[in-house]
Write a structure and sequence with these properties.
CATH architecture: 3-Layer(aba) Sandwich
Radius of gyration: 13 Å
Largest sheet: 4 strands, mixed
Low-confidence stretches: 4-29
Order of helices and strands: HHEHEHEEH
Length: 112
């Protein structure tokens, strides 16, 4: 049932960063397995947060995938009403602001 819903969502919505339905479906698949998630529609602030998190992980020497959730209903499941947001192990640890790599690194150390 979820697969059908995801397929319909992917067809009806496209990412604001121009990724289209294919990029959104791929990100939802990654989000299903990732411990670290960026929540946001794909705007420049959301992409900047994702890049900061990836840089922080690289600097820490941690090999973890970063998922990106673009579906607003799924974001609400995390209690997030403002984006961008960073979720680690199912808990929103930063909401409504774009972190730099140092800030992301601090949160990753605390929550991983």
């Amino acid at each position: 049932m979820n697969e059908i819903r995801n397929q319909i969502d992917a067809e009806e919505h496209s990412c604001c960063c121009g990724g289209g339905a294919t990029a959104e479906k791929a990100s939802e698949t990654a989000a299903d397995t990732a411990r670290i998630l960026v929540l946001g529609a794909g705007c420049p602030k959301c992409r900047a947060l994702e890049q900061a998190v990836k840089k922080a992980l690289e600097e820490l020497g941690v090999d973890e995938p970063v998922g990106h959730v673009t579906d607003y209903a799924e974001m609400a499941n995390y209690g997030v009403m403002s984006t961008p947001a960073l979720v680690i192990d199912g808990k929103a640890v930063s909401v409504g602001r774009t972190l730099n790599a140092r800030e992301a690194q601090r949160l990753l150390k605390e929550h991983l």
